[in-house]
Each structure stands twice: as C-alpha cells, then as structure tokens.
Protein 1
Amino acid sequence: MSASATPPNRTFGGLAHSRSAAGVLILLGFYIVLLVAFSFLTPFFMTLRNVLAISSNVAFIGLMAAAGTPLIIAGGLDLSVAAIAGLTGVLIAVMHAAGVPVWVAVLAAVLLAAAIGLANGALATGLKLNPLIVTLASMSIVSGSALILTGGLTKPLSIAGFNWIGAGRVFSIPVPAILMLLTYVVLAVLLRQTRFGRYVYAVGGSEETSRLIGLPVKPVQISLYVISAVSGAVAGTMLAAMLGAAAPNAASPHLLTVIAAIILGGTSLQGGRGSVWGTLVAVLILGTLNNGLTLLDVSSFWQDVTRGVVLILAVGVDQIRQRLQSR
Amino acid sequence: MSGITKSFGGVTVLDDVTFSVRPGEVVALLGSNGAGKSTLMKILTGVYQRDAGRIAIDGDEVVMATPRQARAHGISFLPQEISIVPEMSVAENICLGAVPMRSTLGVRTVDDQAMRLRAADILGQLGFGHISPRRFAADLTVAERRIVEIARALAADASILVMDEPTASLTEQEAEMIFRIIRRLKEQHTSVVYISHYLKEVFVIADRIEILRDGRNAGSFVPGETTVASVVEAMLGAAAGDLFVAGQAPLARPEAILSADHLGLRNSLRDVSLTVGRGEIVGVFGLVGSGVEVLGRVIFGAEGGRHQGAMRFAGRPYAPSGPAAAKRTGIGFVSAERKKDGIIADLTVRENLVAPFQWRYGRGVFTSWQKETAQSVAWIKALGIRTRGPEQEMRTLSGGNQQKVCVARWLDPSVKMLILEEPTRGVDVGARREIYLQLAALARDGLGILVLSSDVEEVAGLSDRALVIDRGRIVGEFPRGTDPATLMAATTGEMAAPAIGGIAP
C-alpha cells in the first residue's frame, strides 16, 4: 500500500532465479570464451562497428525467440512464426503499393498475425491438437499465402520513416537492437514478476495440476500463441525495413535458429523450465558464431554444421548437469 | 549385504547396514520415507555404488556395478510404477529380456510360438494360466500387469525379486493375488524382498521384517512374534500411539455445506446422493473401480460437467463448469495422483503453495515474493512440512511432505470444503498420522471434508460418517467408530472380511 512497503526487487526479472541462473551463467561463460577466441582470430571482430552489426543482425531472430520462450515453457510450440514474419513484410509492401499509409499497413499486418496466433492457440488448446502439427500446417498456409500475394517475387519497400525501424540508430545503437532488448526486459518482468508469468511456469510444469487448482490454463496458452505470432509480425516489419524490401520467404530459413536459440538457452521442450535471458545469450552466441565464421571466411554451409554441433553440445551439457543435480 | 555405507554429497544415507535374505524367504523392508530403503535396494540392484561394505551371493562376494550385472546375478527389481509395454502382447512383455529366436531360411526372426509357450508356462507356474499370452498388455487390469511384470522377472531367471510397493494401486482382493504368487515363489525357493507401507500386508506375507531408520538397522522382527505397534515404534523411533485421533463424541447432524442428489456419470456413478456438513469429515470407502476415483472429480467439476444430478453448495444451486468455478464457489481438491496432477514438480514449495490463490499474494498483476514467502512459512509451520525452506524444489520433497503442500494450499478463507482423494497414498506412517491430525483440526475449525479412499482403515478411522460405494452406488452409511471389517463387508463383491482383514491388531 504505502511507499515504504515497497519491497526491494529480489531478482531483476528473475535473472537471479536460482534454477535457471546456473544454466544462464554457464552459457554466458561460453559466450565470453567465444568472444575472446574470435577477437584473437580476427582483428575485425572486436570493433564497435562489428559488434553493432551483430546486434542488429540478430535482432529479428532474437525477437521471435524471446516470444517463443514463454510459449515453449508453457508446453506449446510455434513453427509458424518465421512464416508470419515473411507474410507481414509482403503484406505491408502490397498494401503500401495500393496506397495504404505504411503505418496503417503495419497495424493491419500485426492484427492479422494476432488472428493467426489466436487460431493456432485455439486449435492447439481447444481441440487439443498437437502444436507441432497445428503450427506446421499454419506455417505452410501462411508462407504459401505470402508467395501467392507476390507471385514469389521480392517487393521493394523504401520509405524513409519506415526504414528507420530496421536501419535507424539512436545514440549509434541500432533501432532493431533496442527493440529486441526492450522485448526481453518486458518479457522477463512478465515471466518472473507477474501472476501471468507464474501461470506460464505452472501450466508448463503440469497442465493437469494447473487445471485442478483452477488456473486459467487455456487463456494463458492461447495468449502465448498470440504473443508469438505478433512477435513474428514485428520481426517481419523490422526485417523488411532493414532490407528495404519484402521477400515472402525472407525469415523462413531462420526458424531453426529461433527454436535452436530457445533450446540452447535452457528452455525445456517438455515445458516448465526456462528463461528469456538464457534465450538472449543463446541468440547472441549463435549470431556471434555466424558473424565470426563469416569474418574468418568460413563457408556459410559450414556455419549450419557448426550451429547443429553447438546445439547438441549445449543440450548434452544440460542433460549431464540435470543428472548430476538429481543424484 | 553387510556394512553397507553410502553418502551423497556429505550426507550419510546408509550407515553400516546389514541385510540378508535366504533362498525362499520373504523379507519385508520397512522404514519411513528417507530411512534409506530405496537407496539400499538401488545398491543391491546395481543402480548406485556403495561407499563401503560387501555384497555376497551364496557366500561369494560379487560386484554390482550396473543393473545388468545385478540381473545376471539373478536379482530383479520391480519398481512401484509398473513398467510394461502396453502396445505389446503379454507374451512379448514376459520374454522382453530373452526373446526366443528361430532361423527361417537363414534369417533370424522372433519365434512367436516359443514365446507364447514360455509365457504360458511361467504364468501357469504362478497360478495364472488363465491370462492369455496373446492379450495386449494395454487391456490388462493393474493387477494383471503386475503379474506379467513378475513373470518377466522369472523369465529372466531371477532368484531374488525386489518388489517396491507391489500392491500400491491394487484392491485388497487383487493384493491377495500377489500374495498367492509370492507364496508360490517361496515354494520354488525364489527369495522376495518386499517394500511396503501397508503394515498389515507385511504381517500376512513376510517371514521376517527388517526395519531401517535414518540409514541404520533399527530392528528385526518375526511377524508371528511381534505386534504392529512394536514395528511402528521401531520405524518411528518412539512410541507412535494410535494413528487416528481418538473418537470424538458424534456431533449432532451439522448443517449441510454440500448436498448432492442422484449424481450419475456414464458407467461410473449411479444415483449417488450424499451430504457433507460444516465441520464434518465424510469418508467414502470403495475399492478401485467402484466409482470412488471419480466421485470427488464430479463434485469438483473436473469431469467437465457431463454428469447427471443436481448439487447445492452453501444453500445455493451448484453446477461447476470446471475446477476454476468450483474453487470460486469455495471447494478445494487434493488429487490421488500426486505426481501427475497434484504438484508442479519443477516449481518451488512456495510457488506450489500459493498457486491456487496467487492473487492474494501480490500487488495488482505483480507477484510479491515477500507476501508469498510469509504465507508459505506460515503454512510450512502450521502443517509441519519438512523442507529446507520455501525455495526448495517441490520434486525433492518426500511424498508425505508433498501431500501436506497439496492440503496446505487450499487453506484459504474462501474455501469451505475440501475434497481429498486417497489422502495418504504413498505417504509414510509418520506423515500419515500428521495428516490425519491436521484434517481433524481443520474439521474442528468448520471446514467440511470429503475423503475418498480405497484404504478401509483410513475411512474407518478418520470419518465422522462413512459411506461405502460399490459399482457406482452408495451401498451403506455408517457412524463414527464402525470397524473396518464392517465397511469392507458392505462392499458386495466377494468375501465379507478378506483374510488380511483379520490380522489387523
């Protein structure tokens, strides 16, 4: 009630939450090793320009991974998010070409994404269909629609105010990076400091228990699908603004990176465990790895291989850690 | 096994423990949760390695580095959760460890016929020749699955069977089938180590009772020469006294908080009417499959409102659309399946405790760690939950303490009635007694309590009023003080008082 009763924040967005903190710290250690290694290997790596480039390149992936994290914690999964990003860019370009003001187009695309998320959630929770199948199907529908809209072509999208979202800077920090970080802070607070966040962990930990203690299981899950879909729309807007063009499949190749980052960040596919900070560090690791290997002139084909190996290593280490804990 | 010592991270779990079993002997291993029973058995079966001590079979010292080695020495472990493959036939399940093969045109394939014969042979030896090896395991009852599991151990030439709570989810009649098997095993000189919370079963089946307490040997008894009381005393370390609160004077019929009229649910419930009064403990006793496992869920709205009949709660019509609606009305529910739908294992004790009434312990949409902790500490104290603190992970608590958490979280001023399914299943004797005391105290404070249980002694000892349910119908109502045998007799079914009922002290 009174100001004096304001308790000190025990944790900042749950970063110090004991269970996930250990995993995040291990990941952070790995990230630092990676940074040190790359800065020895190539002089271009540790330049301010390169660091900012990394942050702006990973931003749209990081955004989708951020919103996907609570969904997976709650036992869901969204494979359609990257396709939604592609459709969003295309939709904005098509509507803009038809004379719709760009911000109205953005708003319409976000609303459409929310509707897709609502449909995903309703099918997955209401009809109890497997989220993998539901969102695989909607991924196909959404990316197909994007191709139909453009005939498979890339549409130019060059509007000064709009492109600022993807390429602009504030105090020389790229706007996408700022948007991404804001998303992480908001979601971290949502997950660790609010009732809704607690329900996310409860539902993911045991859906049946949550139902039997009268928690709003379905509303929580459905709203997470909506959040994930909307993050796809925002990421798609950001990507189109950054590239100055909208390609129907611009984001699709990055779906795997989004899921990989969430898992690498320590979120359990079984639900109940995870944190957005883990996801953030994982996004940075994967982004840095890509960037560093590119600077070292390693073929992008090898980068895919490296990402797979890192993912298996991370999951393996996590399994070993869990087994040691349960002893 | 002698001088067995084991510690985890500096905590000594077993200290110089000696344990032996002779050929054809049935030894019961007893102890409260945390006494070291399961650790000792995991060492015997190669899951854990001992820090000190020796294990010998027929006088020869042996190494048990892996579960596979233990099986090679003829030691087979049957965990509490039945592990059979539901998609496979009975024969395939039994022969899983050693599948008979044959060679057709140089290609080795599974010899189905040999497998069925072997399975039928073993089932016949156990006295259950009527279970067809062709049936799918998914179609078997829980008791039949347990029998198939025992047969599988024998198919792998086990000479020592370690059974952890083999009768946990069985009715008394079904438990009697397991006892028949154990007697057969004895005749064939197979040894059995029997871990159980059900003391009267132990007195029926065991040749010897070994007690562990705090990781040490705490006594050895022969059932015919001792009493349940002295065994319980050895387990708890002090005179345990009666498990139940001494019978209070029966109250005048209290004002009804819940009344249910002619409840029905598909094939499970028919025409069930009952009332629960303020401050009254109503117990419903029924064997597995009698409807006892769905009645509480119907009242709590967890069966999705597909039932027939009408209910009133606190004087108003009550038709819950789901658990959330029941909770708003003022009903709490403690599930029988603690691990599956009772606790959230990954969350902390605190998070589990405040979960149903989360909004009380925060400001607006935000949670408050201080308020949650204050309430958790209060509940931990009030119910004597043994934990390192509110931040301990729920999964690491013992069954009894998890159960106390499941009860505590409903102690909200808005809750006027509590439904408990199998309130002490898988709970050790000490915690069991504490839970009974707590329930009695809550009823004295005016809470209506409905207990649904397949444990006849529990219903007899705890209830102000006991109902008996059989095949979906209420078949009898009894006042406080009715003895368990009478309740058991009220279930139509078979014998009035099963053999093991007579052994109770």
Note: The longest strand of chain B covers residues 256-265.
Protein 2
Amino acid sequence: MRPENYQAINHPPSHEYELNFGPNHPGIEGNYALKVKLQGDQVVEAHADGGYLHRGFKKLMEGRLWIQNIALVPRICVPDPVPMEMAYSLAVEELGGLEVPIRAQWIRVMQLELSRIAAHLFTFGGHAATTGMYTTMYWGVADRDLFLDLFEELTGGRVYHIYNIPGGVRRDIPDGYLDRVTSTLDYLESRLPDYDNLFFTNQVFVKRATGTGTMTQQQALEWGVTGPNLRATGLKLDVRRDDPYLVYDEIDFDIATEEAGDAWARTLVRRKELQQSIRIVRQVIERLPSIGGPIRCPIPNPLAWNVPAGEAYARIDSSKGEVAYYVVSTGGDKPYRVHVRGPSSMHAVQVLENLVTGGRLEDVAQIMFSLDACPPEVDR
Amino acid sequence: MTDIDYKAKGSILNPLKNLQFLGRRPVTQPLEPRPASANYRGFHLNDWEKCIGCSTCQKVCDNATITMVRIPDIKEDPVNGIRNLRPAIDYGRCCWCGLCVDICPTGSLSLSREYVHTCTQAEIDSYFVLPDSSGMHGTYGHGWRKTADADLVDLSRHPMAHLEPPQRSDNFDEIMLGFTRQEAILEASRCVQCGMCHDACPTHMDAPEYIRAIWQDDPEEAVRQIYRTNPFPEVCGRVCTHRCETACSIGRRGEPVAIRWLKRYAMDAVAPERVKEIAAESKSDYMTGKRIAIIGAGPAGLTAALDLIKQGHQVDVYEGLSEAGGMTRWGIPEYRLPAAALARDVDVITSLGVRIHYNRWIGRDIDMATLQLEYDAVLLAIGLGLGRSTRIPGSDHPQVRKAVELLREISQGSVFAVPRSAVVIGGGNVAMDIARSLARLQKREYGTVRITACALEDRAHFLADEIEIIEAIEEGIEVLVARGPQRCEQHADGRLLGLKTWKVDSIFDEQQRFAPRYDNSDERFHEGEMIIEAIGQMSDVSVLGPELTELLEWNRGRLKVDVAGRTNLPWLWAAGDCVNGPDVVHAVADGHRVAASIDAYLNIREDVA
C-alpha cells in the first residue's frame, strides 16, 4: 500500500492488541521480551519483560570463594565479558589492598579495548539485521571472530576469558602476540570503509535510524543512561577519562560524541569508538614491550583468602555503558554482598519502554539494538 | 573519520561499488581444521604419575565438577603423601575456567587443545570422564597449563625468627623463637586442606582442621583439635619428625606448610590454664573404678594415661627419674625443647587427674607382681634408655660414652669434665644432639669447639634432619660422612687419644642387611679426649625380673606385642619406643592404640562380671 493511500483508521478500543515481542523473536537480543500494546502498528504501551535468563548471579557469588567468582562474572554479559571480570577484580583489589603490576594494567587495557571492538562489531551486525541488511551482520560476526581468535590465544577461551583475577592477569602474553594483534587491527581498519559503504552511509540505515528512538540529554540523564548511548546525546562523559582506572590516564584518545540522541547517533558513536579503541590498542602495543615485571601481584592461597572487611565500588566503561561492582566484605573468604550495576538494566527497561512507546512496531527491534542492551546483564 | 559525511545521500551509482567484491576473498574462513591456540582451555589432561590425589582441584572447582575417584590399581602411600584418588570431570558442569590447573599443587593437571569433541550417545549420557595424560582423543597435546608466574599455590614458607650461630653457640636457649600471630595466620593460609598430613601422621592429627582454625585466628579451636589426638603438642610442636610436612602436597614443588611450627604457635597463643580447660572438655564425668598402672612417664605412657583417665579409669604412672617426659626430657637438648615447654604438656595431663609417682623404679621400689595384683591392667612404656655400643676395640674405655647417658647427665645438670676435643660416632639426630650440646659446653668453657661427628652414611642418606646438620656445621662441628669407626686409640698412660676410622664403601649387603664394607686404605685419625657412641638405643628390660622375662614372648630382643600393643599376658601391654620406636609422635600414636585396647578389655571384663 502506498503511503498516500494509507488512511489511519480509528480502531475501536477492541482493536488495541498486545503483542509479545520475544522472548523467542529474531528481533530481540537474547531471551528477553517486550510486551507491546499496539494500535495498528503504533506502539501505545510497552512493558519490558525480563527474567527468562535469571540465574541469580549476585546471590551465587555470596556462596563462592573470591576467586571462584571469576569464572562466574563473565557470564553476566556474554557479548562483552571482559568489563565484568575487570570491575569485579578492581573492586576486590581495592578491598584487599592489592597493587596490580603495571604490566598487567596495560594488558588489561588492551583486553578491555579488544573486547569493546568485538562487542561493537557484534552490535552493528545485529542493528543492521534489524533493518534488513544481513550482509553487515555476517561481516560483523565474521570479523568479530578474528578478535575471538586473539582472545583464545591470550586467555585460552574464545568467549569466556576468565583471564583477570584479583591481583592481575592469569597468563603473560604469548610470543609474537602483539604482532598478530597489530595485523588484525590493520585488517579491521582496512575493512572500515567497506562497513561505511555497506552500512553507515547506506540510505536504508540512515533514513530508518534518523529520528528513531530519540531521547534528549535531559531524559538520558534522568533514565540513568550511560556509555555510548549517553554520549550520543552530546554529553562528553566517559569513565575512562573522568575517573581513570588502570592506565587510561596515560593513554591518548578522543571521546566520540554525537548530538542527535537517536538510533543513528548511537550507532555512529560506536562506529567512532571502534577507531578510538584501535588507537588505544596500538598505544598499548607500543608501550607493552618496554614494561617488564610480573603480571600479577602475590595473592594468598585462594582457598584460604580472607579479604579484609570493607566495601568497594569499582566502575569502568564498557561497550554498553558504565559497569560497576559494589562489593562488601565482612572479612571472610567469600563476598558478603555483591551488587552489579549493569548498564543494560537501565537501557533495556525504562529507556527501551519509553523510546518505543509512540513509535512503530518495525522500529522496536532497531531501537533495542541501537541501545545495545544485553538481556543476560539485566537478569543477573 | 570525521570527513565522511555519514548523512550524505550518496551517488546513485553507489551499489556498483559492490562489484569490487567479485575480486576479493570472502570474509568467511575456509572450513579447514585449525589447531587450537597453545593456551587453549580444552578438556582435562592429568598425569597420573604426578597426581597424588590431594583433591585440591576439587576444592577450587566452581561448579562441583570434579569427583575424586578411587583407583584400586594405584598404590596408596600415605607416608609419602600419595592417595589412589584421581579427579574425574563431569563435563555437564565444567566451565573450563582452568582454576584446577592453576591451583594443582603437583602440576599434574593441564587442559588440552581439543577444539571439537565427538562421542557416542553413551558418552554423552554420562559425560563423566576420568582424564589421564593422553586426554579424551589422545592427539591434541597440552594447552592451558601451569606457568611459574601464574601459580595459585604459595610455594615459599614464611620464615620463623631464630637465634643466629653467635647468639646460640654457647648457651642452651631455644633456637626457634616461634611465630607471631601475623606470621602464623599467613603460614596457615598456605594450606590447601588436602589432609595428606593427617594420613601420614602416625597419630593422625587433625592438622587441616587446626591449621584452618589458626588461619581463622581461633587458636583455642586449634588447641581443641590438637588435643583430640595429641597430648604432647608443645613437644611435637618443636621436635616432631613431622611426617606431615614430608607428605604435604605443597611440598611437592615448594616448601611444605610449617605444620609443626603452627602447632607450636597454637600452644604459644593460648594460656596454659585455658589449655587445661580445653583438654578437660572431653573427660568423662564418672569413674569406672578400674585402676591401671603405667610404667614410664614418657610420651607413650602419658598419652595412654590421659586417654584412660578421660574414660574414667584411675591411672597411676610410675617414673624412675625425678621428672616426667622420658626421652623428651632427658634425651633432647634444651635448645631444641626447653624443659618448661615439656612441663606444660605434663601439667595438662596431670591436671586431668593422672598421678605420676616419681623416683619409683620398677624392680627396686615396686615390683611387677605387686602391680599385677593391685591393678586391673599394666602398661609398660619404658622407652629406650640404654645406649648401644659399637664394640670396637677400645670402646670399653671410661671416656668412651653412650650418647643417651651423656645427654641425660647434661640435662640433669650433672657436673663432669668437659673434654677439650671429642669424637661422636653416628649420624642421626641423637648424634647431632650430643655433638651440639658438647659444642655449647666447650664454647662456654674453653671458647672453642673441637668436635668431629663421623657418620657411616654418605650425605645423600644422612639420618639426621637436614637443618640439624646445617646448624651443627654453623656451630663449628666437623661433620664427616662415610667414616666407619675402627678403633679407639689410647695412650700408654691410659689417656684416650682418639678414634681411627676407615672410609665406608657400602653399608648394606645385597639382602639389605646391615653389613658395612670399608676401604682400609683410606684411614683417618680423629683426635678426641672423649668418644661418644650415638648409634642406637635399647630398652632396660631388667625391670621385668627373671620370672616375667621367662613368661613373656620376645621378638629379636624386643617385647612381642599384638597390633593393639598387648603382650602374651592378658594384663600387660607395652607401648612406645620399647616396642615400636623411634620418635615422639609414634609413641603418642602407640599410647592411643594401647589405651583403646586396655579400655576395651576393661569394659569386656565388666560385662562378663
């Protein structure tokens, strides 16, 4: 039907209907659902419906040794697991007064940024798929795989790296690893024009995304939006710069921002962040060979490790937004309480509900992917 | 980046750009098998030769994936810390974190480079694999394995403050000064709670439990755990032969946990009066009316006494000398075990109601027949009070002394002429004890040390503890290895001149019997005004009297006892060094064993009556 022939019909109330958007739906990320109330294809009301993935992480962590939680935390956010390990480790290090060796800090930065690249590639792919551009999705997933290869070599695991432990990292970088990272980065850089052509300047995407799911800076702040989503409303806020952790204060990078606050702006911020991450990793590659020393400070026997009583809050900037761990110890061998502040619990609940309401059904998936919400992280 | 206009409409010809991809490689990778990375965390590999079954992997496992499975084909060897348990993995639970590999005390575990696993339906159904060194498919080799910088086991021991040679060489002050609270907690935190120590200990002390309690800063609980199995913690905390540490799984690659020193710390940290209360917690609150006599107030006798008094029996201990402790009192020098520490242990035992009658020699002050009449059971724990002689020519000279007797004289504070030079025959701990004691006296009296210790064994097979040899050498003693004593030379006027030795070629013959062979071309003379024989001890069984000696069964000069320590006479048990030898903790274990046997015997009699 051509738009000029389309006449909105005022349906009687009975024509309002509810649609379960998820949990099994190709347009939703992970096992998550939105219950949308529709009038025609107009979204009248939306309710986020999580819980399908709930595994009780935070409670589980209270019953496990400090070190055992290392294997648990990456599962909270599957596409970008490194910030989870990192924030937990930083919090425990603060509690335990552990001094992480400089070399380990640089390795951690490299790992964080590689993880950000991998996560962003995954998200573009998903976003493109919601606008019908499946080639970008295939490319994104295929190129992400090269980064998973790098992770496999560094950490022994492709997805769940379980590589950071309180005190440092678990293994030193293998011989020749940095060269392989360089060549993968070179490859990704050479691919960026292809991505621009195929996706970022593609009018299908530009027109679909512009003005879709717009939020103002004020709204973003009120809803607790962080990370690229917040920077897409024009606010230059980045934990890496504002509250530097690890060695980010020694690294030169720009904070990517956009003004529009819509799906297009959010995706563009991620596109720009890819380049910044590549820049950061290149600086690590340059510096790391000259930094010797251990990769981990001495830690007590993990089976008999009482972390001193106290509380610690560690936050870092992940590809999805601000990840923070609030850890309370009563001086025992297990955490007394762990609270995970995941960005997606804001993005996928109040932000998503608000942004899709008043929009159209076909944009729901796109808005969710443009927010880069990660359902497992909502249900933790 | 910024020069790209992302919102530009673009050219209508843009789609034609795609033509360039006709000449480019696809981004998808060809489906060729590719080896996993060198660090890959695949399925488990376990070197069964290295694995000791300590179960540490099971403890650190996040998901309770690991079950320890008993493999009957593997020989158990508790003394050397080997169990026939091996980890089996439930791959339905495993998350491949590799913590098991990083914490494995032996380094036997690793993960393979197996990317792909194909298996039969039956295997999927169980998914329970007992990994060995070849892995599930046997062809992939090691991936993730332990590296030195990523080891989660703390391999180095926390040092204990001690006296340096100049501070200790002329006095009998205790050398080891004990752990501080902080040091003890740190040292205790190294323990992985495998329990190898418990299995190796002759009296099966609950070492993992008391180490845990010390780590939790609860020394009273540690003392409680210690007293469950050992009433001589002050002694064993200092001079135990610490088989626990030999078996310790941390000791596989590093220094074992200082289990002995931790025991001592627990005793140092709790006030003696409180120790008595803790020890009394398990005492029965009724008396059975049975009476038991124990001959000898050494570790074996007093351990049995404590066990029996806890069961509500009345116990009388007869001790020939003026103080309790037996060899721990008279045979171990004060710098290793202060008499005050031993006295605290004995105090706890007597505080529970054990009566010790001092200076009562059996055979002289009271005879065995009387004991048999007056008591329901008698325990013989007379130890090894007599020194053995080498019986080489000249060894009957009055200045040729037995180590145990001389040690006793030194402990008793007897006055004797300290020789300006001395030769010690023997390479065991007793030889080191007497050499080091004499060295202290020489240093005090003459300012110099002139002592030679001649051991039969070579350095690799030395009998004394390594630390004893090191400290002896530090204190100026000349320790010679592989020297066999041949003759004690004396001057025409009767003065002792010294010892002549030959080099030892071998000590045992093909049947592993003691038959030393010497090389008489390598003869040396060691000057000494006194020669001390420290080659072994024997029991003074003369206390038994001829009648009893005739009635009892003997085994190569030692009393023959059954597994529970009972002799062939129904009322007489024997325990400790005089039947089993050769150290404190074995004596304690023996004491428990006979006490259980005596208690069972007394209960049976009651039932019949």
Note: The mean pLDDT of chain A is 90.
